[in-house]
């Protein structure tokens, strides 16, 4: 039995007629950028997420960068301000902070959830700290109650990188009274094809309740222009294509069912994998807070992970590592030629983030897509239980 980590052809196959119809309608419309389909998807996805405004952009990295740049243009942040970001994340989170002219300050993760550890925020703060960019890694919501509470006490802005958490739900009724009526300034989504809600190409969105911020994001993504040939900002070209918006509109009604199936599969893994060599992720008290973009197990060390990956491969089961190199170890964040740190503060040095580094050495993700059959899930469970070193 061959079980790929993710088969996008199989994911999209049941909706091929709807996708072909969507593509045909866009082509026949004669309008291909920021038209009726984009506007409709912006409204529907923002409402689905519980926000008033959505702005479609070219990709998830642009969504992150433009929501931060818009905050600078509005005078809420200033170039050189420090933004707290998780040390355990895809590099796009850190790149976006730098691209906006801000300084990322890394915060160690909670090894239990993989997300930013709110208990470590205070130690990372300096007089230059102005915001927090939380990431909902692997599909699990970060501890937003604690993050919002900390931000409210310090007067910090809060942003979210939700590139992996489409459809994750936070029950606001259970939040502390201090933050129950707060929300993040903006949330960035990616619709890269592998996401829980994926386009058939690159696409992204910023959602927010702040109409001013939404308008500036929209202008920044359109060369800094609201009116043709009148440029208020030094913008970029980052706009959601009509055809991708149409594809996403066709797929959005199925997202909750897809996430429900992922939760079923994750529950089977957690309940049926009994191998002491593997550390399994936990299911949150409210299962709606996790949409299982990936299901990630941990091994004792890098060598054990390599043996596990070869074992799964021998059984025809695909696996991937998210992510083998943490941002602060990437060559892109090495010292500049004169030996100074030019993108991250000095505390980015090797050894300052042992939890993030250990996760990079020990995590391995196994298939969890909604298209897996019960038989395939049973096969994966069996392979994990059979693993020995």
Write the layout of secondary structure elements.
Elements: H1 8-12, H2 16-29, H3 36-49, E1 53-57, H4 60-73, E2 82-86, H5 91-99, E3 103-107, H6 121-124, E4 129-135, H7 144-154, E5 157-161, E6 186-190, E7 204-208, H8 211-220, E8 225-227, E9 230-231, H9 242-251, H10 255-272, E10 295-298, H11 302-314, H12 354-362, E11 363-366, H13 374-386
Parallel strand pairs: 2-3, 2-4, 4-5, 5-6
Antiparallel strand pairs: 1-7, 6-7, 8-9, 10-11
Structural summary, described in words:
The chain is an alpha/beta fold and 389 residues long. The protein has 2 domains: 8-107 and 116-252, Aspartate Aminotransferase, domain 2, CATH 3.40.640.10; 253-386, Aspartate Aminotransferase, domain 1 (Alpha-Beta Complex). The chain has helices spanning 8-12, 16-29, 36-49, 60-73, 91-99, 121-124, 144-154, 211-220, 242-251, 255-272, 302-314, 354-362, 374-386, and strands at residues 53-57, 82-86, 103-107, 129-135, 157-161, 186-190, 204-208, 225-227, 230-231, 295-298, 363-366. It has a 7-stranded mixed β-sheet, with helices on both faces. Strands 8-9 form a two-stranded antiparallel ribbon. Strands 10-11 form a two-stranded antiparallel ribbon. α2 (16-29) runs antiparallel to α9.
How would you describe this structure in keywords?
Aspartate Aminotransferase, domain 2, two-stranded antiparallel ribbon, Aspartate Aminotransferase, domain 1, seven-stranded mixed β-sheet, single chain, 389 residues, alpha/beta
């Amino acid at each position: 039995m061959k079980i790929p980590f993710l088969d996008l052809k199989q994911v999209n196959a049941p909706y091929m007629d709807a996708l072909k119809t969507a593509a045909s309608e866009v082509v026949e419309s004669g309008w291909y950028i920021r038209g009726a389909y984009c506007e409709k998807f912006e409204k529907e996805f923002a409402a689905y997420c519980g926000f008033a405004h959505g702005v479609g952009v070219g990709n998830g990295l642009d969504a992150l960068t433009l929501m931060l740049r818009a905050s600078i243009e509005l005078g809420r942040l200033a170039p050189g301000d420090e933004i707290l970001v998780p040390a355990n994340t895809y590099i796009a989170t850190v790149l976006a902070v730098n691209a906006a002219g801000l300084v990322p300050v890394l915060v160690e993760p909670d090894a239990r959830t993989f997300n930013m550890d709110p208990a470590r925020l205070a130690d990372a703060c300096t007089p230059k700290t102005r915001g927090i960019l939380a990431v909902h890694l692997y599909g699990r919501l970060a501890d937003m109650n604690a993050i919002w509470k900390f931000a409210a006490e310090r007067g910090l802005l809060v942003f979210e990188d939700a590139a992996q958490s489409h459809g994750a739900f936070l029950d606001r009724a259970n939040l502390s009274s201090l933050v129950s009526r707060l929300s993040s300034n903006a949330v960035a989504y990616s619709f890269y094809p592998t996401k829980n809600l994926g386009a058939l190409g690159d696409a992204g969105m910023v959602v927010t309740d702040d109409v001013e911020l939404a308008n500036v994001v929209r202008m920044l993504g359109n060369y800094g222009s609201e009116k043709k040939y009148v440029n208020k900002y030094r913008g970029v070209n980052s706009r959601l294509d009509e055809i991708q918006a149409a594809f996403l509109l066709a797929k959005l009604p199925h997202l909750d069912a897809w996430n429900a199936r992922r939760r079923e599969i994750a529950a089977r893994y957690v309940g049926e994998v009994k191998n002491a060599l593997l550390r399994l992720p936990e299911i949150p008290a409210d299962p709606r807070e996790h949409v299982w973009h990936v299901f990630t197990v941990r091994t004792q060390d890098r060598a054990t992970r390599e043996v596990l990956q070869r074992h799964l491969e021998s059984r025809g089961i695909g696996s991937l590592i998210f992510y083998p190199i943490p941002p602060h170890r990437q060559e892109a964040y090495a010292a500049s030629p004169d030996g100074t740190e030019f993108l991250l503060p000095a505390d980015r040095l090797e050894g300052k983030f042992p939890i993030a580094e250990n996760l990079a050495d020990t995590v391995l993700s196994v298939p969890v897509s909604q298209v897996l059959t019960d038989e395939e899930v049973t096969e994966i469970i069996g392979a994990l239980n059979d693993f020995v070193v």
